[in-house]
Amino acid sequence: MKELSTVTKAMIHEKKDVFLSIIAGFITGTAGVGLFAASGYLISQAALEPPLYALIILTSTVKLLGLVRALSRYAERYYSHRATFSILRRLRVTFYEKLEPFAPAIFQEYQSGDLLARIVGDVERLQNYFLRVFYPPIVLIMVFLMTILFVMYFSVLIAFVFVLGFLLTTFVIPAWFTVRQKQIQNNVGEKRATLSTNATEFLYGFRDLKVYQQMDGKAKELLGASSDLIQEQKEEGRYLIGNQAVNTFLALAISVLVLGIGAYLVSERHMDGVFLAMLVMLAITVFEEAVPMASFPSHLRESKRAAGRLSHTLQSDSFNIEQRQFELSREKPLHIDVNNVDVQFQNEHRPAIKDVNVTIPTGSKTAIVGASGSGKSILMALLLKLVSARQGDVLLNGRSVNELTEESIWEAINVVMQENHFFYGSVQDNLLLTNQAHTMSSIRSALQKVNLDHLALDDHIYERGENLSDGEKQRLAMARVLLKDGRTWVLDEPTSSLDAVTEKKIFAHLWQQAKDDTIILITHRLTGLENMDQIIVMDEGNVIEKGTYEQLMAMKGHFYDMKQLERQVLSVL
């Protein structure tokens, strides 16, 4: 039950509604039992032609119990569902608050569709924990105990049958089904996650699938995942119906047994026959309340599995969950030290970067170059705390990133990544992500600096910038970062899709704005690096050369060979 501790804590916060749900449920169950018992007694008494006032009293009692049952049923549903919705709200908020510090590193371990299934589907499935697992058994036990005490006044033997039936329908049969469920692997949550993942990839890759004519294969895979989920749901439904059928049969058998024993007691004059119909109606009614207990094991297992998936999401070894207490100042440029750092992703056989040592002084201009896959972008992600080092440490202004809050790191650094997300909305909306306080003139100035002054601020941008070219996306990302007020710049291939003239203009504005700031430029282009304070050359996850442009060219090493190859390519073009 450790998996459900978070749900239980959320229920404690809603203890008032939980208590009212239990009380209203008890009143509903007691009124229902009393209603049918009074009806049976009324029918028996009416056959004996009692005085009119006795019939009036009994009839009024039946009507009153019916009214109480209806009102208490409404109150039970109201408070139980209000408690459930409040619990789910609290769980969503709690889960998001715990998950948010892991983003975006969490996408290295979970696909977005699977993560969405956990956030939405698994939280929704936890609603059954309160509505089907927690409070119904409490109400049922209270109603049964009240009924058994009442029946004992008329017959101890029949009361014993009630006790036996109560134990069977409430404990023995559900326990037996729980043991059986361990042999039956119903993985509805996992199948739903697989379907969600496939659907997400299908939508994201729809254009490429069309271009490469792979729609049919991916569609079959999606339909297969859907069929698997439907089959699991059918199996789960059949199992649940079978459980309920067994419990229903047992409840009816006990009612018949009560009728037989009651008839025997009446024939032997050990009980007044006027009470026989009442006791039979009592048995039918109270054991109907026990039938839903057949679904108890299924809902309990479902809740434990959903809570376990949510808990596992937050307990991965890939995430550093130490409490970070220090804030990184954004008022001055950063001094960065990378000391003996290794980064290796989960399930990868080799490290992405290994034994990296880099020093980037305050206010310096550093270029990180290398072939594709050499580890340049991983080093950037390490600086931004988007990935965690397997060993070694990264110091920002002398403080380990493990001691700093992610928010303060991201506030202090102006970042342009290789892929930049744009939201559905206007140009202005996407540029104001950095700071809502920017004026219209400052936004237009930023657009002008990146040659996007032909765009109006209210021009529409589609989701993920689908109506923009790659060059326009990069320029818009540069305009966005020019509006940010951090003193350290980390730029990962910021102009790879731009022509040389536009690139030169953008960098001229950048160098002017950030002349006293720390700049880290990650690029595969070697043109224009002559004025950098240092150039770091990476290959296969290692730093193989460091120095100024002149020093590296004089060494005639890896950087020199790359530069000569670039010149040959450009001369051919």
TrEMBL record:
An annotated GO BP: glutathione transmembrane transport
The keyword Protein transport is annotated on this UniProt entry: no
Annotated CDD domains: ABC_6TM_CydC
One cellular component term from this protein's GO annotations in UniProt: plasma membrane
Entry keyword ATP-binding: yes
Coiled coil, from the record: none
Name of the protein in its database record: Thiol reductant ABC exporter subunit CydC
Organism expressing this protein natively: Salicibibacter cibarius
Record lineage: Bacteria, Bacillati, Bacillota, Bacilli, Bacillales
